[in-house]
Write a structure and sequence with these properties.
The structure is a single chain. This protein has about 500 residues and is α/β, with parallel strands linked by helices. The strands form 3 sheets. Strands 1, 11, 12, 13, 14, 15 and 16 form a 7-stranded antiparallel beta sheet that branches. A 7-stranded parallel beta sheet has the order 3-2-10-9-8-5-4. It has a two-stranded antiparallel sheet with strand order 6-7. The N terminus is likely disordered.
């Protein structure tokens, strides 16, 4: 199941190498470079290596573009599919983490794949560097469930001794696989289990890694979420505080261990949480690498199809276009599946069960959006999604930012998505022609946009760039057909 790719740029992608967000969603390489530098100098512990995860077409932002910048900054990259390895190899010599069977690169090895890796090494007379995968991957039994170093050492010894071929010509020993790293993935585990499991992983992996000295061995369990959780208070966002992982003495005593952090979401600044103090437009944190802005063309009153009279800002997005209606058909399903608490799911279910009131043209309240208490993300999602149905004024649950204000669209996008009307009736800061309109920026990154239409950040980015959503994710993928292919 491969992300669809082609040499043609997507419908919304700017063709110039410089990011021009007013022309449509574009990748800002300088922001991406600063994100990588920030994470390595201010977040990761000194000496740690960053593995930039660029699978799924660089989380939708462009695989070759992101891999090239990562290579310039001296980082390895992580990919998933064979064609991703080929694309990354064109711009970097170090596609160091791949799966499965991309011969010549580092491979993730599990009980499910080790036999194929050994066979591939034998068939090609190649020694394949591998990272042994321990424990579960979300709900999948990907890895070896070892609880002691002795168990892992036995596997490594078996791989060293059992699969030896003596070449007939030069009598040199040839291994078909070579263990160069140990990995686990904490995502999918309940929070209360993450610390005990990471400690178990290190207690198991480090003694075996030390036994392979002087060979350098990668040990990695930290991803974007884990890095965020490990930053100490008072700054729980990506602040100028380095991670403080608890490393057992058995690991610290091994000079050949290289600690890696595999980072995806954080390097792209996909969510507001990645960028502290986003409402003020300033860090510290990692900023969104996918940018899209426009200008308010005019302002005035209009009568909505519901009969409601609202003050609106007219925004012309051309040559780009707002996502077509088919995109947000899965919004409620997505939010129900990914709400962070039982209370949040109940709010969303209640929103789904409550039909939208018919538009009366009159404000039954003050018309202003309710401000949620700090941290009440579930309530915000329930109000923002509302079962992907219009409110009583006929307004869709879609938003943009103008003058640091989250403002709702007054009506469904028009002109095949090239024109939007933004409801500014109760904007605290007046909106005037020429004001910048944020569709993708620090206040509204691609992951936050995705929550509105019911997609994870990489599928949202893929769709915004005119490419198909990747298959095989845990979420309902957006039906991201372009407007021209949507029956009106």
């Amino acid at each position: 199941m491969v992300v669809s790719r082609g040499s043609a740029l997507g419908q919304n992608v700017t063709k110039n190498t410089t990011c021009s967000p007013s022309q449509g969603p574009c990748f800002d390489r300088e922001v991406f470079k600063k994100n990588l530098q920030y994470l390595t100098t201010a977040v990761l512990p000194e000496g740690w290596k960053l593995n930039a995860v660029v699978k799924w077409e660089g989380y939708g932002t462009g695989l070759q573009e992101t891999a090239a910048v990562a290579a310039e900054e001296g980082h390895s990259v992580g990919v998933l599919y064979n064609d991703e390895v080929a694309a990354a190899a064109a711009v970097t010599p170090r596609p160091e983490l791949a799966s499965p069977l991309n011969i010549g690169d580092l491979e993730l090895a599990s009980p499910l794949s080790i036999g194929d890796l050994i066979k591939a090494g034998k068939d090609t007379n190649t020694t394949i560097p591998i990272h042994l995968y321990l424990y579960m991957h979300y709900d999948g039994a990907w890895g070896w469930n070892f609880t002691t170093p002795k168990q892992l050492q036995a596997l490594v010894d078996q791989l060293d001794k059992r699969y030896i071929k003596v070449a007939l010509v030069d009598t040199l020993d040839k291994r078909y696989v070579k263990v160069v790293g140990f990995m686990m993935h904490l995502n999918g585990y309940p929070d209360e289990k993450k610390m005990p499991l990471s400690q178990q992983f290190l207690q198991v992996a480090c003694p075996v890694a030390a036994s392979l000295a002087p060979q350098k061995v990668a040990v990695h369990w930290v991803n974007s979420d884990e890095a965020l959780e490990l930053i100490p208070k008072p700054n729980k966002r990506y602040g100028n505080y380095r991670m403080q992982p608890v490393i057992p003495a058995v690991c610290n005593n091994a000079s050949n261990i290289e600690y890696w952090a595999r980072m995806g979401t954080a390097i792209y600044g996909s969510y507001v949480e990645n960028y502290a103090d986003a409402a003020e437009g300033s860090g510290p944190g990692t900023a969104p690498v996918l940018r899209w802005t426009s200008k308010a063309k005019s302002v005035g009153e209009t009568t909505l199809p519901s009969g409601a009279v609202r003050k609106v800002a007219v925004v012309d997005l051309g040559p780009a276009s707002f996502p077509a209606p088919s995109w947000w058909s899965n919004a409620l399903v997505f939010e129900l599946a990914n709400s962070t608490s039982t209370a949040g799911r109940r709010l969303l279910q209640a929103a789904a069960a409550t039909p939208a009131a018919p538009g009366t043209g009159e404000d039954e309240d003050d018309g202003e959006e309710d401000e949620d208490e700090e941290g009440d993300d579930d309530a915000d999602n329930a109000e923002g999604i509302a079962a992907a149905a219009p409110d009583r004024f006929g307004r869709p649950p879609l938003f943009v930012y103008i003058n640091h204000q989250r403002l709702q669209l007054a009506d469904w996008p028009a002109g095949n998505g090239t024109v939007i009307l933004v409801d500014i009736t109760h904007a605290e800061t007046p909106v005037v022609p020429g004001d910048e309109v944020c569709l993708l920026c620090e206040e509204r990154p691609v992951g936050s946009f995705g929550l509105e239409v019911g997609a994870d950040e990489y599928n949202m980015a893929l769709c915004l760039r005119g490419m198909g959503a990747t298959e095989g994710t845990a979420y309902d993928d957006p039906n991201c057909k372009p407007w021209a292919k949507v029956q009106q």
